[in-house]
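## tool: complex_structure
## caller: assistant
## args:
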Amino acid sequence: MTVQAVIKPNTYFDSVSLMSLSTKANQIEGVEQAIIAMGTEMNKEVMKNVGLLTPEIEEAGTSDLIIVVKVASDELCENAFVGIDELLTKKKGPSKGKSEVKFSTISSAAENIPEANLAVIAVNGMYAAREARKALENDLNVMLFSDNVSVEDEIALKNLAHEKGLLMMGPDCGTAIIGNVALCFANAVRKGNIGIVGASGTGSQEVSVRIHEFGGGISQLIGTGGRDLKEEVGGIMMLDGIQALEDDEATKVIVLVSKPPAPSVEEKVLAKIKQCSKPVVVWFIGGDETKVTEAGGHFAKMSKEAAIKAVVLAGADESKLNKRALNIPLIEEVRTKLKPEQKYIRGLFSGGTLCDEAMHAAMEKFDNVYSNISRNPEYRLKDRNTSNEHTFIDFGDDEFTQGKPHPMIDPSTRIERFIQEAKDPSVGVIVMDFVLGFGAHEDPVGAMLPAMIEAKQNAEQEGRHLEIIGYVLGTELDRQNLDDQVNKLLAAGVTHASSSQNAGLLAREFVVKGE
Amino acid sequence: MSKINELFNNKLNVINVGIESFKDDMLEQNAEVTHLDWTPPGRGNPSLIAALDKLENPAIMAKIEEANKLAVERIINSKPVLIGYDQAINCVPGMTKTTILHAGPPITWDKMNGPMKGAVTGAIVFEGLAKTIEEAEEVAASGAITFAPCHEHNCVGSMAGVTSASMFMHIVENKTYGNIAYTNLSEQLSKILRMGANDESVINRLIWMRDVFGPILRDAMKLNPNGIDLRLMLAQALHMGDECHNRNVAGTTLLIQALTPYILQTDYTIEQKREVFEFVASSDYFSGPTWMAMSKCALDAAHGIENSTVVTTMARNGVEFGIRVSGMAGNTWFTGPAQKVIGPMFAGYKPEDSGLDIGDSAITETYGIGGFAMAAAPAIVALVGGTVEEAIGFTTKMKEITTDENPNVTIPLLDFMGVPTGIDVRKVIQTGIMPIINTAIAHKDPGIGMIGAGITYPPVEAYEKALLALAENIQ
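## result:
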């Protein structure tokens, strides 16, 4: 038996805490007896009575902390002191009392909530990079919803995330599904074995919703932000996202969604999928089939096609899928209703990628396709408020959202534009998307409905047929009622497209002449 | 497994910053979500954000963290012990017969507010440097008086803080680091000099304190060879329901209990001793200044540590609120306008009668008690117009802007959490959370005195200036 004491000079603990600490100390392995107490005369007397008083304890003062243990061997003694030190320094969780503790910074929240694993950041762009950096420094994965973050900051953040093995989704990332939880703007979809890495928000939403419709499910949907595949950023997060899905046991098939990447980045991504053991479906709007196939990927030209390929690769029986082919008799019928001068499509979109997909469908048949998001400057609208021939507008583009909420939340700008387009006698068809899901408007079709009904009536009075195509992006699990939304469209005489892909193709086919 | 794959395999636990509806959507999907009480750092001021960014450079941050750790260690490990009482002229460094110390950052006579002018003129009469208050005003304006902040003479002073040569002082020695701090004796509450009152009754009380009260305390402590361990006593007072700034019931009882055996052994008459006990019992504020000197004594030990962003002083002169920061050695003050104090007032007074925030007593919050320890003193939540829950909230919120918790001074209601200690200028600017201060309210005019008590906050400008200077200074 040995008795050893440690004196911590000038260290105060209240007596109640010390009693409970002593109780715990006596449970440490090998401890015969342990006392932790302040060096008051009374405590020293107690130690003396149980034979634990040592000369150094006698010297201790009232504000000195005494730790004394009786153990069988020196080795156990060391163990005991280490254990007691842990008891003394153990950090308690935040005391909540009845009130909810409010944290003001990511750092303090992360410190107090060790289980925290993701930060969702939606603050003004001026502060966004700073908050994201703090989150990464605290080992949190990040979904950065904010836009107006510089490319330099994006690169720095993504490099930091890459070094730390963390996700850095965004900036300007509006869609993700992690662990079956939809973040920001995303739809409620079934859990499954298909993982998505998407550089485009509504494109990823569309693919996830179609996969759900075809009976598949999503393991993870990782958003990268729209600039990830640009030359400067170099696809850092798409590459890390592919790797994470490759390593994820629950993922069987990977789908990549993006607008056209920079050529050097495309090369990197294709090189990456070459190394993947899992099938990878690539839908890069306007992408090159040969390159993808050569890299061992599965090429998809459009969104529905991407979803079908994914569910089949994930094990669905292709012959049993209702692929929702285009309604050819309907196309014939609409063509006969439209007057010869009704030549043009006007696409009014709240989802950027949905706009892009429809525009690309039109571009396969027409040269004169204009847009506010056209990559070809020749076909970029000079004035975003005036349409020209075939025109596709993305109302979610920055120039429309300066100081205003996104059109998925606030439909007012699009309603005004719709009324204007509907009066144009050269317009044959107006195509629009209605996005459901978390973050989106509670009743997007309802908001547009009066304008659609009135426009159709006015056109009829003027002796022309106005064809409106509506596409509702959503699942039956979304909080807005999908069936209700579709029924509202049908009741107003609007043609309902069953997918983004079909919406674009129908619009194109309705106005194609002389085939 | 990479951290991304860990994320896939664990329940989502999100920290949500910004748009609150995202939180609701995630909660609906059974994720754990904590929504931050977030505001733009530095009120969105780009130069402040740049300064924060600079101080977060990893190499600089490491230096700051190390310096702050040392600063807080010194605050926590300080062991201030009351070793005696004596007249200012005999103990306070640099004190002369014509020196008058005042609260807060430096201020000249012409700029002083009503309560401070009232206290200064009262002290001039008390010291025999003038016969009347009117005459005292002339003396004060003549240049014959040396004005200086208490803080620049190792002192702290409640409210106006006015301290003159023959007033008796607490002498508090830091047994760990050797530095000494001083403060005046409490005149108790209401119509008193430090609140700006200065009529005959006030002067007579000061005379009694000089001739009877002070000498008894001085002689009593001469009989106590070990002094009184103030930190231990403070810890006890907090456990008994004081926050030791606005509520001093327990602390006063403990202090007089410790002094009594020695007071009884002095050679003064029973009548004089009885007067002392009655005076101490006449209000609960007797130990108020004692905790201020204790706090000052601990914080001075942490001042002047290179690269530290820990605040070592908060003090107000009734016009300006000033802070000092450890990493800016010496008497570098960062100031902003003194604020209003919001709280209940004595019958007959209205908010517009209030003088602005005044006094060195915010040294207690700088140490981590007072407003920072509100959760220890549920009995006075009414004073700050709140509920017990709010009191707990005040204390836990202060953890957001402090460096550590002081294990030597704990709060039972919060599972014996140590008081939040070591206000960090960076954290104040980052979070926009200002230190909360419990304090008294003096009438804005001289000669009236205390009219209420409540809470106030420092002006953010003082912290903004300090942050910019630190960013400039720390390389």
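## assistant note: Confidence is low (pLDDT under 50) at residues 95-99 of chain A. Chain A touches chain B through 66 residues (CB under 8 Å). Handing back to user.
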